[in-house]
């Protein structure tokens, strides 16, 4: 695997990716854990309690992805702006905006192709008959003709980035929002490169309150906007405090922020009224959000944001997230996200339901019933093998697939910039060179 510098934000990305997989496994096999209790008057299971439920929940992890997107994509432009190197900042935004699209879209298209190929070679056949509603909903038929299969592939590749849905992998619904979030970062940076940091803080506040009131339906404001803006805010803090961030607050404060963030992130996905603590949180958020807001997204945002701030100010948390294990999780986080649903609908489904498929259960009329999973031990072993295969394939993806995608994107961007054929444009064009000359500086390559 190609070497990569350890970075706490990479480790956090790896944790978020792992949590997403855990959340989908929970939805597939133990969906009742998404509630704080099975009934209002029943005692909750251990993994339905605050903190513990994070081991099987992945919603706040999606918020973390958006926070990281805002942080990573803005940290460079903010640093150059604060240093007064505005020409380099503008050029960096221009290059990043184009390259970011390719680096996100190309691997996603490849992952969709893999899922399409499996679906049209019968690999998802068993998925249609299992007793897991979530896995069964991910089933896709084998198209009757090659022409129909090709049309369905093109439709899935396009609709992932237009309507936000991929028939072959429903978990890709967030990816067009990540791309939009990146563009929100670049647009905001482009508009604020010339302003002083205090003014940029005010702009963040205005954007935050704007997205807070966009709370209807899926709450794109709470899912995308609030987290992206908060990520940019933390990037601003990074450039303000630099190496002193972890010694800025008294030692207990970051730890308390992390604990508070974990508690807020524990807000349940379903049946919030079944426990007093989650019902109180629901009523509180409903009192400060617009009508019909998806309050779950707001708690996901507040929990993930508080957690990020706690880690940002904590030396211990950063050291943990830069350890080899978390560094590995961060390196493979994107292919894990892209591949996990495909493996769940194929390899994991085969392992869990194969014994039942060999002797399908039938009702009194002789009609085949849903396939039944094996024993708890059987399922646990299957999940362990699934995790091994997932991270092994993700490691191979990083080693062999990512470099190819990077070469394609780099070649395309070099062609788009006219590098090698128009030297003048490599230095930013006449307008950019004029700005550099006025400042008496030379724009870096």
Automatic annotation (TrEMBL):
InterPro entries in the record: Acyl_transf_3_dom (IPR002656), Acyltransferase_3 (IPR050879)
Domain of life: Eukaryota
One example GO MF annotation: acyltransferase activity, transferring groups other than amino-acyl groups
Tagged with keyword Calcium: no
Coiled coil: none
UniProt keyword list: Membrane, Transmembrane, Transmembrane helix
Signal peptide coordinates: none
Domain Acyltransferase: 7-354
Pfam families linked to this entry: Acyl_transf_3
Name of the featured protein: Acyltransferase 3 domain-containing protein
């Amino acid at each position: 695997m190609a070497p990569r510098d350890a970075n706490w934000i990479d480790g956090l990305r790896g944790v978020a990716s792992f949590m997403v997989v855990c959340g989908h496994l929970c939805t597939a096999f133990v969906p009742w854990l998404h509630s704080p209790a099975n009934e209002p008057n029943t005692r909750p299971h251990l993994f339905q309690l605050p903190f513990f439920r994070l081991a099987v929940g992945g919603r706040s992890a999606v918020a973390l992805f958006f926070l990281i997107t805002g942080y990573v994509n803005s940290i460079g432009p903010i640093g150059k702006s604060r240093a007064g190197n505005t020409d380099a900042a503008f050029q960096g935004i221009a290059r990043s905006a184009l390259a970011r699209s390719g680096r996100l879209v190309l691997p996603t298209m490849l992952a969709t192709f893999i899922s399409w190929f499996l679906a049209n070679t019968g690999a998802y056949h068993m998925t249609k008959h299992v007793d897991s509603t979530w896995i069964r909903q991910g089933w896709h038929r084998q198209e009757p003709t090659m022409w129909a299969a090709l049309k369905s592939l093109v439709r899935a590749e396009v609709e992932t980035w237009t309507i936000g849905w991929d028939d072959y992998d429903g978990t890709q619904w967030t990816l067009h929002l990540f791309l939009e979030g990146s563009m929100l970062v670049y647009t905001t940076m482009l508009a604020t490169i010339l302003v002083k940091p205090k003014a940029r803080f005010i702009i963040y506040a205005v954007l935050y309150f704007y997205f807070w009131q966009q709370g209807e339906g899926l709450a794109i404001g709470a899912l995308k906007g609030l987290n992206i803006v908060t990520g940019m805010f933390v990037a601003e803090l990074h450039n303000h405090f630099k190496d002193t961030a972890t010694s800025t607050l008294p030692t207990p404060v970051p730890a308390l922020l992390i604990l508070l963030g974990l508690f807020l992130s524990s807000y349940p996905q379903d049946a919030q009224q079944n426990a007093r603590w989650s019902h109180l949180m629901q009523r509180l958020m409903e009192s400060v959000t617009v009508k019909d807001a998806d309050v779950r997204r707001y708690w996901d945002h507040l929990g993930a944001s508080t957690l990020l701030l706690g880690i940002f100010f904590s030396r211990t948390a950063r050291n943990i997230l830069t350890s080899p294990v978390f560094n590995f999780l961060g390196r493979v986080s994107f292919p894990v996200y892209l591949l996990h649903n495909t493996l769940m609908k194929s390899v994991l489904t085969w392992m869990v339901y194969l014994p039942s498929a060999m002797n399908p259960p039938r009702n009194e009329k002789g009609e085949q019933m849903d396939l039944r999973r094996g024993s708890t031990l059987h399922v646990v072993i299957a999940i362990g093998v699934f995790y091994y295969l997932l991270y092994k394939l993700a490691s191979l993806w990083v080693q062999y697939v990512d470099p190819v995608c990077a070469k394609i994107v780099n070649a395309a961007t070099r062609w788009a910039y006219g590098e090698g054929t128009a030297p003048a444009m490599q230095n930013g064009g006449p307008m950019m060179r004029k700005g550099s000359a006025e400042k008496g500086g030379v724009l870096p390559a």
